[in-house]
Amino acid sequence: MIKTNLLISTLIYPNLIMILMTSQTLAFMPALSKPMTHQDITRVAVLQTTADVCRSRALQEGWNFVMPNPLTVKSVAESCYSSDSAKDFQSSLNKINHHNAWVDFWNFFTPSYHFDNEMFLAGRKLITDGVSVVKYSVKKQSYQTARAALGKVLHTLQDFYSHSNWIELGKTQPYSNLIKPDTLIENIADSKTCSQCSSSDCIGNILEMVITQNKLTSGYFGFFKPKGKCSHGGLADPSSWWQGGINKDSSSSSHGYLHSKAASVATAATKELLQDIRASVGDSEFLRLMGLTQSSVLCFVIDTTSSMSDDIAEIKRVTSSIIDSKTVTEAQPSEYILVPFNDPDFGPLTRTTDPIVFKKKLNALTANGGGDAPEMSLSGLQLALTGSPPEMEIFVFTDADAKDKELTSTVRALIERTKSQVTFMLTNGFSSRRRRSAVPVDGQQQVLNEVYKDLAEASGGQAIEVTKKTLSQATDIIAATSRSTLVIIFQAIRNPGKPENFPVFVDSSVKNLTIYITGSSPYYTITSPSGVSQSSTELIGSLGIIQKVGNFHKVQPSITEQTGVWLFSINSTQSYTIKVVGQSDIDFLFEFIELSQGPHPSYTVLNSRPAANNNITLLVTMVGVDSVRPTEVSLIQASNSNSVNGTLEEVSSGQYLVTFNGIPAGEFTVRVVGQLSSTRSLGNTFQRQTPTQFQTSTVTITTQPVGTAEPGKQLILPFTVATSGPGGHFTISVNNDQNFDTRYNPSITVNSGDSTNGTVTLTVPNTASSGTDVTLTIQAEATGGSDSNYAVLRIAVIAPVTDFTPPVCEAVSLNANCSGNCSLSTWYLTANVTDRSGSGVENVRVLYGNGNLSTTTVLNDRGVNVTMVIYSSSCCSSDLELVVVDAEGNVATCFTTSRAAKEITSGTTKRGSTNGVKCCLFLLVLYYLWSDISSHM
Ligand SMILES: *[C@@H]1O[C@H](CO)[C@@H](O)[C@H](O)[C@H]1NC(C)=O
Ligand SMILES: *[C@@H]1O[C@H](CO)[C@@H](O)[C@H](O)[C@H]1NC(C)=O
Ligand SMILES: *[C@@H]1O[C@H](CO)[C@@H](O)[C@H](O)[C@H]1NC(C)=O
Ligand SMILES: *[C@@H]1O[C@H](CO)[C@@H](O)[C@H](O)[C@H]1NC(C)=O
Ligand SMILES: *[C@@H]1O[C@H](CO)[C@@H](O)[C@H](O)[C@H]1NC(C)=O
Ligand SMILES: *[C@@H]1O[C@H](CO)[C@@H](O)[C@H](O)[C@H]1NC(C)=O
Ligand SMILES: [Ca+2]
Ligand SMILES: [Ca+2]
Ligand SMILES: [Ca+2]
């Protein structure tokens, strides 16, 4: 038995963390001749860290965990019991990588972003400020902002290992001070650091003295460089033209012989940063940040005015039936979002992972108020679009016209940027004949539900018109489409309608093929690959079942032979939509991007419509089986089936750059056709289509990169409007989802072929708290509305950080009576933790270990809050890593046994073992730690 009671100033064990990092880094060994890019480094680190988090969660929950090999997005998602979220995981990783690339696109010549020019303090500040944004944004569930900030931080962090002399100093571990704002960056070189080098590889150009004295330096980039300093190197860096440099960007760089070493330490550093974020936000939030638990989301925007009581009752019924259906646990939504709207009020948005909380929120909804007939539906929808994960389906329930139609183009912009589908459940209860007739309003011709139909079309959703009585017959679409693995195989919208035949490939991965058709009495015939055919007049036929309600038809084929080419023949002169969906793991993700013209290949994701009369570039990522490859990526004209093929270039595994030299006229969607495996056959052919209709514009809006906004301060957002179309006056409108005050000039003049600058002044109220994010849309519309474009900006609100110091573990006692049968004995650990005068201890977390943790906070006699921690665990389990987090997200690692135990006993400490010898080995480790702690005093 050991009983200790010690006063300890800090209990941080960098050496132990290091041991772990190296042992895990061994798994990273791609082809050495190929340069490791930022994207590769990030992917490896994210996959390893995520797998590590899932392993510790599995241990705590008593689940089985098998470390996947190799680590891929799909294999990690599967081992995390989240195979349905593989697409969201990929999408989150992509977002992080897009923002990593963004730094080279926008800040290529700013040395601090790349640790060039010995900008160590400024570079470190970019990292620690960015990490604060990540932590605060996660706390507020602003995951998209968090991913953006994380991507930027990782670029700078990773560049340190390529651009400084850390690797040349012989270091094999990350420089942890870069992510710790309370530490010093020491020993920065204060004089000459490099000699000229003549050979191409420049080995040994860093001065001997710099190496022996352990001085930190980095390469200078550009035309101006203090004499005797090192250069970055490469053709793009004039300072190195006559003397070489030290960067390790690729194996052909000046110090390319160290490229793979630098990449490997950069990977370890990326993991160290991810672990810091994980410790700060907790495991389940970390997994949500990675998109791993966001698989299926139920999102409702609900009219709560007095006319809606029937509808609200039906929504409650449907939601309960989805939540209570325990048949397929995987199909349970992982997240619920609710936005009520009324008139004049709307919101707030509720986002929860807890079905009970969601049901409570729904049950609390009552129908009242609203005044006149139209209601604030688009304001509610705007909140849902900015506050939900992208690429999901949003259901809007209303029986009234929109009172806030001025938001139509903002909502449309958000639909295009988020690629969310919006399906309207409209219960105005008119017959279809009366609905089609125009209702004159103030001399204008205004058709009921027109704005909803337009937005549904633009998003690839549906405008379902039913009566209050028949609403329940249409709502099973909600359960079907909230599945995360739902894919869109084909979609067409014809307005006005015309008879047309649509051939569609259905591949062998597709399950539960379903066809949705909307329109007033469309006549159609569906023919399966084996020639079985059924027309819309047969509700039960040889193919399957047709359900009709209002303008909405659902066809579910029940025949077994579904793989091959289907034919959908629609004969209607009224407008109609057809959508063919199914369940499948195979899908694609894409972004419109702009490639940088600069010296360094990079790209940025467009936050606006692509420019007309220009080439369009897409970055396409395939999701699903690894052998899936696209053979054709095309833009499909929305009004007919004309298409334009792009040129494909594989840029990394599963990622393709697709260039289009022309585009179809008007609105278009994106389609990918490909092969499921390397054997080319009809049954292997798949097709997928985006629901969203995109368009190009002769108007462009360019925004500058924005930093964060501070509560109580104004933020100036410069933008530039240019036009390749006709010049003249442009109407500027600005909207944001937080209702923050904005000032701007509502009209600017732009000449054809020219550009004009403007600014938006955003005032953030004092009351806005850190981590809030504001989505701001700037729109420019040509006179007469002939063309328009927008830019969507997401800005994080962060109050200045004042607490840079992690909490301290002031006292610890260990009480372990582990002898004999370990399952019969328990060990205890107690600690007192405080954040001194900082922001206060907010969380104590067990990162590894499955014992019990309890905390009590008391005010001690010096007026300081002290959190007393007691951890108790079975003697069979030696794992423990305890972290303490303050309110600003600073993390202290207070106690670690697991990794040390694992290392020192060479993996022989097995959980659940009843072997007394192993039990005692573990105690030896604890004892070893103890003496280590004592020696720190
Ligand atoms: C497919 O449909 C059947 C019947 O409608 C349903 O029971 C099953 O859960 C669905 N499977 C998937 C993967 O959605
Ligand atoms: C389409 O419908 C029209 C009118 O209902 C009918 O005259 C015509 O024969 C139909 N065409 C086909 C190909 O079914
Ligand atoms: C579009 O791409 C083609 C070939 O890829 C190139 O020749 C052409 O100059 C590009 N056009 C524009 C406007 O960039
Ligand atoms: C697009 O490519 C496919 C396959 O390569 C080809 O069959 C089709 O004709 C092309 N379409 C156009 C419009 O060029
Ligand atoms: C407009 O803004 C851009 C980018 O900030 C700047 O380069 C340009 O000089 C400005 N033009 C005018 C006319 O102020
Ligand atoms: C831990 O904190 C409590 C409350 O301030 C105090 O009573 C106790 O003495 C502290 N223990 C040690 C070992 O400092
Ligand atoms: Ca109403
Ligand atoms: Ca009203
Ligand atoms: Ca603190």
UniProtKB/TrEMBL annotation:
GO cellular component: extracellular region
UniProt superkingdom: Eukaryota
Organism whose genome encodes this protein: Silurus meridionalis (Southern catfish)
Protein's UniProt keywords contain Transmembrane helix: yes
tRNA-binding in keyword set: no
Location in the cell: Secreted
Ranges of residues in domain VWA7 Ig-like: 699-799
Pfam families for this protein: GBD_Hemicentin (PF23560), Ig_VWA7 (PF23619), VWA7_N (PF25107), VWA_4 (PF25106)
Alphabetic keyword roster: Glycoprotein, Membrane, Secreted, Signal, Transmembrane, Transmembrane helix
Principal place of residence: secreted
Domain Hemicentin-1-like von Willebrand factor A: 298-468
Domain Hemicentin/VWA7 galactose-binding as annotated: residue spans: 487-584
Residue span(s) of domain VWA7 N-terminal: 71-287
Protein name: von Willebrand factor A domain-containing protein 7-like
PANTHER family noted in UniProt: NG37, VON WILLEBRAND FACTOR A DOMAIN-CONTAINING 10, TANDEM DUPLICATE 1-RELATED
TM stretches of this protein: 12-32
